[in-house]
Every structure is written in structure tokens, then in C-alpha cells.
Amino acid sequence: MKIFIQQVLNGLTAGSVYALIALGYTMVYGIIELINFAHGEIYMIGAYGGLLVLTLVGAHHSSGLGTVLLAMTGGMLLSMAYGLSVEKFAYKPIRDSSRLSLLITALGASIFLQNFVMIGQGASDKTYVSLALLNTTFNLHGVSITVNQILIFAVALAVMLLLDLFVNRTLTGWAMKAVSQDPVTAQLVGINVNTIISITFIVGSGLAGIAGVLIGFYYGMVNFYIGYLAGIKAFTAAVLGGIGDIRGAMVGGLLLGLIESLGAAYISPDYKDAFAFIILILILLIKPSGLFGKGQV
Amino acid sequence: MTYILPFAWTVAIAVPIMGFSRAVMAGTFMLAGIIVYTAFTGRTRRLQVYGLLRSRLESSFVVRHAWILVLAVSVIAPLLLNSYSLDVFTSVLFYAMLALGLNLLVGDLGLLNLGYIAFYGIGAYTDAILSAKFGIGFWPSLMLGGAAAAVFSLVIALPTLRLKGDYLAIATLGFGEIVRIVLNNWDSLTNGPNGIMNIPRPSLPWTQFASGISFFYLSLCILILQAYVLVRIKKSRFGRYAVAIRENEQASAMVGINTYAVKTIYFMLSAFFGGIAGVLFASKQMFVSPDSFTFIESVYVLAMVILGGMGNIAGVMVGAFTLVVLPELLRSFVIYRMLIFALLLITMMLFRPEGLLGKRT
Amino acid sequence: MENSAILSINNISIMFGGLKALDNVTLETKKGEVLCIIGPNGAGKTTLFNCITGFLRPSAGSIVYRGAVELTGKKPHEIAAHGIYRSFQNLALFANVSVSDNVMIGGINRKEFSYGITDMLLRTPRFRSREAALRHEASDLLGFVGLAGKKDRTAGELAYGERKLLELARGLITRPQLLLLDEPAAGLNPTEKIELVRAIGRIREQAINVIIIEHDMRFVSDIANWIVVLDYGKKLAEGLPDDIKNNQAVIEAYLGTR
After folding, report:
1. What's the whole-number average pLDDT of chain A?
2. Cβ contacts of residue B37 below 8 Å, gap of 6+?
3. Handedness of CA B176, B351, B307, B312 (dihedral sign)
4. Under a CB-based contact definition with an 8 Å cutoff, are residues B114 and B270 in contact?
5. Which of A29, A39, A115 is the best residue to mutate to test the B interface, defined by the most B CB atoms within 10 Å of its own CB?
6. I want to staple C148 with a disulfide (CB 3.0 to 4.6 A). Which of A175, B130, B186, C143 is the partner?
7. Spatial distance between the Cα atoms of A276 and A115, rounded to a whole number of angstroms
8. Closest partner residue to C156 among B240, B256, B361, by Cβ?
9. What's B288's DSSP letter?
10. CATH superfamily of C2-83+176-255
11. What residues of chain B lie within 8 A of the CB of A212, using their CB?
């Protein structure tokens, strides 16, 4: 039982991060029907952004929460800049081409960013400073939880609530919904579709950037290829929840994290990374519109 | 302004990742790209001349019979090459097989398969397991390797081919990873990350394909056979159905094409060719390990299809040749290789989505 | 009279979200008839075609072809194999494929043009003769619709009116017994419309049944034997062209006095 609860906790930690990344996939897909392969790389760049801030402020073992928040802000901003650039330089010029062209471009953007970072930062792991604050561990009847995990839950929860408010309660959020339902009509009623698409990329990238910094602290290091696996897993989470559906992506992310963590504990740790893909294929087989999706595929 | 802004932007976002001096370099490359871009779009007339020239060339006798020359060179060249170059050219053949197989999906049906290398891997491991462990000969395992790949392809094809193409792309990506993870972990069958050694070379009653040259000719024969089959398909009603599905799936169903069946058969055939190439690869190397079947290899093959021209059999082979030989010539740029490939994919989609040798439409 | 019905649609309904796109619609077309379905935008005309051709599945009701074959629940390509061809409102051609190939693709269900994989691989005499026959017939049909000179262009290069004609030629090679045309006259200029009326007349002479969705009342009265009016997913009226023109309910639906 202790093992079970521990695995659930660990699963929810990873799941919160998947959910944050999945949101970007689902928002972009909802609005321009593109699987943004580069999104995983945007997350990875966020992790490097956080690292950069930590180095600049000279973070050390006893730095406080302020430093952590600063790193998150830095990661978010850098990811936003890259997300917007990818949208402007790679996707916008060919938005009206065939879906195949779009997918290939997205793939190209992903590989480009990966190698771009590899050339700039080197191929080896970079370590995140280990903060005493985040490593503080609480023990409850043999189940341990770190401040780092609590931070991940708290940030994910706060960010998702804010996003929900943004999408459902602001004019920009409504405009995003309008564009995702019918871009032509949205344009007719005076919505600047290009701006809305850019905003969607910026917001989605920002979330991924935050996720990147959180994971940087959690695992204590980053490298240029973490975005690839995290990206496909987060996409799986988005499909699991019903692609295009923001709340679905949140639930899908958490669910995927749980499945992975429990599967690794009770089935086989060697196949941990395969579970996500098996789920992806199963969900496509059984209910391609996702657990909560109602739209047609 | 049009030049300064993108330059400044590139430098600004590259600085955090690359440091100042490299960021300026990246910005300069960006600037050069934009200048080339504006030069291109500003001179469409010149491109028309290029198109006209090309259609003249295409209809000329020499070009239409160029394949004879190519064939002659591929037959004679290996006799003159050292063993290193021969290895490179043998791998050109393998990649040409893969690119032709992938082209059935990407070029003809317009569907993206991002895990194609998995079928190469399945073929290679089928050969490794059957001939190294069970002593089944090369020829049966050539067929079985292809068949195994085709059967495994159904795992992906059946659930996803009913859905939009995007789902196929991501599901194949996942499939590619699953296959690699399984190869890495199923120690009792695949020997895990260490791979399988001592895979025998093929033999015939009168000859052993032990030398590099004989293996080259064997692979060449199989490639030619594959290309022949593909040309025949393309020029038949079956090839037309596939292209019809790419162009308009609804209309295809309406004229009576069973789109799901055609897509499934194409998918299996594509996997079959991947599997065959894998068997050849395994018995050439006499060794397989999961490292040869990574996602980046799938991208590599995709880039060949796109560079040469989607749907164009000769073009795809040219693409394979270029992308195998060019990196060999530019060895010192090895860390830039994938970066250049990525830019190639993006710019091809922007300027010539139909590939270098494809028909402009 | 029962046995002369080519297509009987009985009480079909379909819902989109909360909206009844088709509400208990019943209609029938008899052998040799040109049936026109008219009605304002959003009346459910194209939805009806989608139900007949298997792109949508009605939630209730049945669609019976030739008094014997139930079409609901069949897939589009199975329905096509019964000799039902449908054109799309916004044209559905194979744009990057040559004009003659566009037509040849339509020959899929013609046994006389069929061959197997062995024939294809070995280029057997059967392969050659059947491919040649198919090419020949395609080129005849292109002549019939007036596109003989444009065989080797791609479909995407044709002008709008020509594309409509090409879609018709592709339909004819399937040897349809029932032709469903979705707004064939939309976007055509007056001369092209006259051409189209003539072509439909010739098609009718070949004992092919035609169902047409159309807005243009003048065009409809020129060709229809029978008219069904749909409005808000319901059948509003049916009758001979002259009756429909003077039907008060129809006039109201069109002019929007409600």
C-alpha cells in the first residue's frame, strides 16, 4: 500500500508536468489543427531558460523560493519567444498548404531546435543547482513527498486555474474559441485571426517553459533531447483527454503520469516509456476522440 | 527594416542559447536566408524559365533513357571502388529501398509515417534471430522478414488508417519507439542493447555472398526488382486509386474505391519493403543492435523522399543517393548535419513541396 | 407502381447536436425520372445526399434502392458499387491528376476494365488491352462532355465550368443507374447552363435516373419531372414543376414570410 501511494504521488508529479505541456499541444491543435512537433523542444528550451537565470543570479544551495520563481519566469519568457518565432517563421508562411506539408514543417522545426540547442549548449547534461528548500522531504507513515513535488502540484494547479479563467472569462479567450470553431466567421466579426493564433502559441509555449523549469529542478539536470520523449508523451496525454479540449489535456496528463508510474512499479520498469505509446495506440483504436471528446475525428 | 528586424530578432533569441558571438553568426545566416528568399519570390519569371527548361529536358531522349546510364554506372562502379566507398554505396542501396518503400505512403497516399525505421528493424531482427539463432537460411528469412514487418504494420494500420492522417503520423512515431524499446529490453530474444552477432551472409549453391562486391550486386538486384514492382503499380489502376485517395478521400470513396483497404494494403506493402531492406542490412553488417533503428533514422529516410520528390520513383532514389553521399563528403560538418536536414525539410515545404524532381502543379 | 421505384427514402431523420437536420423525410423517385430537390440554404438537401451515399448514417428510417437493397449502414464505396454516383457541391476532383486519369479512376467497378496483380506485374495482354479499353472509353466520355482537348492537363488547371463537366464525365464512366448532382448549375454562366441542361437530357435518354439539388428555379423547371421541397429538414411540398411554382407554402419559404 505504501508503495502504491508513493507511486501515485510520483505519477501525479510527472502527470502535472505532462498536463502543462499537453495544454500547448491541445490549444494549438484546437486552433490550427496542427500537431506542433516543436512543442516538446519549446519545453526543453524553457528548462535551459531557467538554468540560464539560475546561473545569472548565482543561485546556490540555500537560495529561496524567489529564485525558483525567477527561474520559472525566465524559462517561460524564453519559451514564449521561441514559440512565437516558430509560429512566425515556420508555420505562418505555409498555413494554407496541405496537412502533410504542415506536419513535415513541424517535424523540421522540432529537429532544428533540438540541434540548434545542441550546437549552442553542447551535447552533455547540464546540472540544475540543487536547492535545499526544494529537497526538503516530509515523511508520512513511510510515504515521502518533497517540497519540489508540492511546488509542481501547486504551480500546475495555479497555472491551470489561470488558463481556465483566461479562456473562459476574457475577450481574448472567447476570441480563441471563436477562431478554433470557425476562423472565417471569426475574421468576419472583426477578430484578428493572426494575432489570436500568435497568442495561442505564446500562451502554450509559456506553459511548456514553466514545465521545463519545474522538471529541471525535479531531475536536477537538462539536456537537448528531453523535449522529444516528453513531447510525444504530452501529445499522448492530449489525445487521451480529447485533443482540442483544454480540461481534457489536464486530466489526460495526470492520468498518463499515473499509468506510467504504476505500470513501472507493477509491470516492468524497463517498459516505462512504452506505456505511453501503447496507450496512445489503444485510445486511437477504442475512442479516438479521447476520453472526454465529443468532436469527430 | 525588412532585413534589420529579423536579424535583430534572431540574435535576440539565440543569445541565451548560444552566447553572443554565435548568436550573431546565426543571425547572419538568417539574414542570408531572407535575402535568398526575397530574391526567389521576386523572380518567379526565372523559375518559369527553369520549369520550361526542365520540361524540355524531361522530354529529351537522353534524359528519358538516363536510367540506362545510371544502371551501367551502378554495375561498373563497384569494380573500381575501394572497400570503404563500396560500403557507402551499398548503404545508398539500402536507403534507396527504404525511401522507395516510405514513398508509397508519403508520396502516393500523402500519409506521414514517422516510425518507418521500425519495419527496417523488424526485418533486420527477424533475419538475425532466424538465421543466427535458428539457422534458417537467408532466403527464407528475406521473405519472412518482409512478411513480419507487414504483419506488424497492421498493429498501426488497423486502428489509425480510419482516422485523419495526423493521427497516423503520431501513432507511427509511437510505434517506432515501442519497437526500439522492446528490442532494447527483451534480452532473451534480442540480446538487449548488445545486439545479435554472427549473422550469416547469404549463399546460393554456386556462390557465397561473402565479399562486399557480391553483396552489392545482390542488393542492387533486389532494389531493381523493387523499383520495377513500384513502377508497375504506379502505372496501373491500383496506383491511380492511391493517388486518388491522396487527392480527395471523399471523392475516392464515392467513385467506389475502398479507401481503407487501399490504404491498409499500401501500408503493409510499404512495411514489407522496409522489412526486406532490414534483412539485407542485417546480413551485410552480420550484426544488429537497437541503435540502428532510432527516430532520427526515420527522419533521414523521410528527408530523402522529400528532397527527391514525393511520389517520384527516380527522384526518391536521387534523394537517397544525395543524402547518403553528401554527408560522407562533408564529414567535418557532422554536428551540423541534422540542423541542415531540418532546414532542408522546412525550406522544401516552403518552396518546392513536390521535391527537386517532382512535377510542379 | 411499387416495382418502378428506383430509390425510396422512408421516414429518415438525422440529428446534429440538438438540431434535426432531417426530420422524418419520405420521398421516392421512379424509373426514368429527373427529380429535383429544392429548398432554402440549410434545408437539409446535401445532408440527404450524404445519407443516400453513406457519408452519414440516418438515426432513423430506411433508404431502399430498387425495391430490394437497403442502403443505410453501407459504406460509400459499397453504395457506389450499386451504380450510384454523386457529385459534390464544391467539386471533388483529383486536382493533381491528369484529366483522363480522373475519369479512368471512375472505372473501378467496371468488370471489363478489371485485372489482377499478376496481370499488372507481368504486363499481360489482358492488362494491356483492358488499360487501353479504359483509356479509350475515358477519352470518349471526355469528348461527350466537350473536354477532348484537355485530356493531359491536370484537373486543377481546368476552369470552373470545365471541372463540373469533368466531374460529370467521371460519373458517367461508372455507368451509374442513379446520378446525384449537388447544385450542378451553381457558378456556371448562362451558356454553360444550357450545355448542362442538354447533357442531363442526354443522360436521361440513356435511362439513367437523376436526382438534382438546385436553387435556380428556371433551371429546375427546364429539367425536372418532379420536385420535392425541403425546409428546415422537413418535406414542405412535392409535385410537378408548375404546381410547385404556385404553391403558397413554397413561396413563403423562399421569400421568408413567416
Report:
1. 89
2. none
3. positive
4. no
5. A115
6. C143
7. 25
8. B361
9. B
10. P-loop containing nucleotide triphosphate hydrolases (3.40.50.300)
11. none
Q: Which domain range does residue B323 map to?
A: 81-351
Listed residue (B241, B238, B263, B266) closest to B104, CA to CA: B266
pLDDT digits over C72-105, tens only? 889 999 999 998 998 887 778 998 899 999 999 9
Residue B138, pLDDT score:
86
Residue type, A92: K
Q: Which residues of B touch C132 (CB under 8 A)?
A: none
Q: Which of C46, C105, C167 is most worth mutating to test chain B (most B CB atoms within 10 A of its CB)?
A: C105
How many A×B Cβ pairs under 8 Å? 149
Residue B72 inside a domain? The answer is no
Cα angle, residue B280 at apex, residues B278 and B285 outer, rounded to 5°:
95
φ, ψ at C12 (rounded to 5°): -85, 145
Interface test with C, best of B246, B255, B259 (most C CBs within 10 A): B255
Question: Smallest Cα–Cα separation from A145: which of A194, A86, A218, A80?
Answer: A218
Residue C173 to residue C171: CA distance in whole angstroms = 6
Cell of C213: 439539388
CA atoms of B38 and B157, how far apart (whole Å): 42
What is the pTM assigned to this prediction? 0.86
3-state secondary structure of C179: strand
d(CA B339, CA B309): 21
Q: Does residue A296 register a pLDDT over 60?
A: no
Answer for the pair C257, C67: CB distance below 8 angstroms, yes or no: no
CB atoms within 10 A of CB B223: 23
Where does residue C93 fall: left (phi above 0), alpha (psi -120 to 50 degrees), or beta otherwise? beta
Chain C stretch 117-176, residues whose beta carbon is closer than 8 A to a beta carbon of chain B: 117, 120-121, 123, 127, 131, 134, 154, 156, 170, 174
In one-letter notation, the amino acid at residue A269 is P
Question: What letter represents residue B12's amino acid?
Answer: A
Rg (CA), chain B: 22
Residue given cell 554565435 in the structure block: B22
Which subunits count as partners of chain C given 3+ CB pairs below 8 Å? B
Every domain of chain C and the residues it spans:
2-83+176-255, 97-160+168-175
- The phi-psi region of residue B195 (left if phi > 0; otherwise alpha if psi is between -120 and 50; otherwise beta) is left
What are the cell numbers at B155?
498493429
The answer to whether the beta carbons of residues A204 and A159 sit under 8 Å apart is no
- pLDDT for residue B275: 96
Q: In chain B, how many domains are there?
A: 1
ipTM of the complex: 0.85
Residue B164 burial (10 A CB sphere; 0-12, 13-18, 19+)? middle
Neighbouring subunits of A (3+ Cβ pairs under 8 A): B
CATH number of the structural domain spanning residue B246: 1.10.3470
Place of cell 492520468: A255
Judging contacts by C-beta atoms under 8 Å, the chain B residues touching residue A108 are 341-346, 349
Q: CB-CB: which of C77, C113, C121 is closest to B257? A: C77
Sign of the alpha-carbon dihedral angle for B183, B185, B188, B194: positive
In a domain, B93, yes or no: yes
Closest-CA residue in chain A for B110? A100
Burial tier of B80 (Cβ tally within 10 Å: 0-12, 13-18, 19+): exposed
> A2-286: which CATH architecture?
Orthogonal Bundle (1.10)
3-state secondary structure of B320: helix
Q: What is the pLDDT of residues B235-291, one digit of tens each?
A: 899 999 999 999 998 889 988 899 999 999 999 999 999 999 999 999 999 899 999
Residue A191 has phi, psi (to 5 degrees) of -85, 135
Q: What is the dihedral of CA B307, B311, B317, B318, to 10 degrees?
A: -40
Residue keyed to cell 489536464? A250
CA B161 distance to own-chain centroid: 21
